[in-house]
Amino acid sequence: MAFPITSSFTITFISTLLLLFKASISLNNTWDVDEHWTMSKEGSIPTSDADLLEFALNLEYLEAEFFLWGSVGHGLDQIDPTLAEGGPQPYGAQKASLDNVTQDVIYQFALQEVGHLRAIKKTVKGFPRPLLNLSASNFASVIDSAFETHLRPPFNPYANSTNFLIASYLIPYVGLTGYVGAIPKLQSPAAKKLVAGLLAVEAGQDAVIRTLLYERRAQSVGLYQRKVEWFANTISKLRNKLGKGGLKDEGLLVPPKVGAEGKVGGNILAGDKYSLGYPRTPEEILRIVYGSGDEKKVGGFFPKGAKGKIAKSHYDNVNSLNHKHKRSKKGSIPSLDVDLLEFPLNLEYLEAEFFLWGSVGYGLDKVDPKLANGGDAPFGAQKAFLDPVTRDVIYQFGLQEVGHLRAIKKTVKGFPRPLLNMSASHFANVIDEAFGYALKPPFNPYANSINFLLASYLIPYVGLTGYVGAADKLQSPPAKKLVAGLLAVESGQDAIIRGLLYDRRLQKVAPYGITVQEFTDKISKLRNKLGKAGTKDVGLGSAHDMSKGKGGILAGDEHAVGYPRSPEQILRIVYGSGDEKTTGGFYPEGAYGKIAQHYHK
Ligand SMILES: *[C@@H]1O[C@H](CO)[C@@H](O)[C@H](O)[C@H]1NC(C)=O
Ligand SMILES: *[C@@H]1O[C@H](CO)[C@@H](O)[C@H](O)[C@H]1NC(C)=O
Ligand SMILES: *[C@@H]1O[C@H](CO)[C@@H](O)[C@H](O)[C@H]1NC(C)=O
Ligand SMILES: *[C@@H]1O[C@H](CO)[C@@H](O)[C@H](O)[C@H]1NC(C)=O
Ligand SMILES: *[C@@H]1O[C@H](CO)[C@@H](O)[C@H](O)[C@H]1NC(C)=O
C-alpha cells in the first residue's frame, strides 16, 4: 500500500486485537468465563494435552534462565529451587551488561517466565529443568550459522543491551509460534485456557523485544558492519531453514508484499497475509532449538535434548508417538464457534476504523468498502496529529485489523460494520468517568501522539482478553487455529502500545499535569469496574506480585498468564454502561451478532 513511503519508516506491526469469546449458547450466563473455567486438576486433562503443555516447559525453562541470569545474574536456583526440581544448572549463563531500561524490561520478562513455569506445573506434572547451554559461545555458533561465516570477535549476547536483545529475539518467538500451533490440538478447556493465557504474554514479550530492536534497526552491531535489522532478518531466515515448515518467521523489514495487507515493508510483528500469528509444531521447534534442523538430533540450547514425551519420542526412539499434525479441514464449524468468532468482529471494526482514521484520515470505506458491508459510517472519526513514528505504527495496526476482518469473514459469515461512536467527546466522556471528574479542557484523543496512544490503550486490550476468554470454549480446529493466530498478533499490538506508553510513563500529559501512568491506571480500574469480574486489567504502574513492585509493562495474573474476559464483560466495558443489555458508548446502537444481540431485545 501506499504507506511505505509516507514517512521515515515503515513499521509493520502485526498485532491485532480481536476478541474471541467463547460462548456456550445456552442462553444463561454461560458466556461468563469466570464461572466455568476453574483451573482443572490434573486428572481432567487428557494425556495428549498434558504432553503438549509439558513440551512448552522446555522453552519456559530456557527463557526463565536466560532472562533471569541476563538481568540479575542468578537463576531459578536462587529464585525458587523447587521449580528447577534438581535439574542441572544452566551451562554458561551470566549477567549481561544492560542499560537500565533493558534491565528493567528483561527482569519483568524473567519473572513472567517464572510465573509461567508455576502455572504449567500447577496443571501438569512436568519434569526437572533440562540441561541448557546458555554459554556465549553457543549463541555465537547460532549467529555464525545464521550468517554462514565466523564472526570475529565471536558474537557475545552478554556484552551489551543490543546484543542481548538480538539474542532474546532468538528465543521467545519460537515459543510463541509453538503456542499458536498447540491451541488447535488441545482438547480440554483447562489446557486451552492456560495456553491462551501463556500465548497472550509470550506474544507481548516478543512484541516488546521486536519494538526495542526496531527502534535500533539501523544501528551497527559491534564491529561487524552489519545492522540490527540484518541480524534479525538473518536469524529469522535461519529459523525458517531449520524448522523446515516454510515461512513462519519474519525479520524487522520485509518486502512489502509480505507485510500487513501486502502494503508495508516494516515488520515490527510477524504474521501471515491476514496478520495472523504463525503456528509451529513441536518438531519444528526442536529442529530450531537443537540447531540441527532435525528433531532427532539433540544439541544447541538443549545439549541432552528437551524433556517430556513428545521430545523424547524422537531421540529415544522407544515408541514414536503418533503425533501427526494434520491440517484440519475447513468447513465444519459448529454454530457456537461461529457465534464466538463473529462477536470479535465488533471490536475488529472499531479498531480498524480508529487506527485507520487516526493515522491516515480515512477508513474502511476507502480501504475496502466490501468489508464494511454497507454498515453506517463511523461517527466522529478523524485524523489525529501524530508524530511520524506513531503514525507508521498505528497505520500498520490499522492494516493488521483489516487483515483480521478478512480472516474472520473468510471463516464465518459475519455482519456489516456496526455504528461506531469515535467522536472526541465520547473518548472525553470515558476519560472523565475514569477520573471521576470532568477534565478541563476535555480529553481529545486526536490532539497528539500521547493522547492517541492513551485512547488506543482503551481498546485493543479489551479485545485481547476476549480472545483469551474464547480460546477454551471453541471446539473446531479451524476456529481454534484462527483465534490463536489472532490472539498472537493482538497481544503484540497491545504490548507495543503499552511499551510506547511505558517509555513515557512518568511524563505529564498536558495540560492536565497527570502522568501517563496515572491515566493507564485509571483506565484499567474503570474497565475492571465496568466489567464486573474482578481484576482483569492492570495499568503500567500496578505493582502486582510477579513484578515485585516493578512496573507492569505487560498485564497478567499472579502467574503472568493473560486474563480472560467473556463477551458480556466486554460489552459492559465497550457500552460504558457496566451492563451488557444497555447499549451505548462506542456502540450507540449496540454490537452485532448473536451473542451481543441476545442481550438487547
Ligand atoms: C439456565 O441454567 C440453569 C442452571 O444451569 C438451568 O436450570 C436453566 O434451565 C437454564 N436456562 C436456560 C434458559 O437455558
Ligand atoms: C541506572 O540505575 C542505577 C542503579 O539503580 C542508577 O544508579 C543510575 O543512575 C541509573 N542510570 C540511569 C541512566 O538512569
Ligand atoms: C555449549 O556450547 C558450546 C558452543 O557450541 C560448546 O563448546 C559447549 O561444550 C557446550 N556446552 C555443553 C554443556 O554442551
Ligand atoms: C556491544 O558489545 C560489542 C562487543 O563487546 C561491542 O563491539 C559493541 O560496540 C557494543 N555495542 C554497543 C552499542 O555498546
Ligand atoms: C457520540 O458520543 C457523544 C458524546 O457522548 C454524543 O454527544 C453523540 O451524540 C454520540 N453520537 C452518536 C451517533 O451516538
Automatic annotation (TrEMBL):
InterPro entries: Pigment-catalase-like. Residues 1-26 form the signal peptide. The keyword Zinc-finger does not apply. Keywords: Signal. It comes from the Eukaryota. Pfam families: Ferritin_2. The keyword Signal applies. This is Desiccation-related protein PCC13-62.
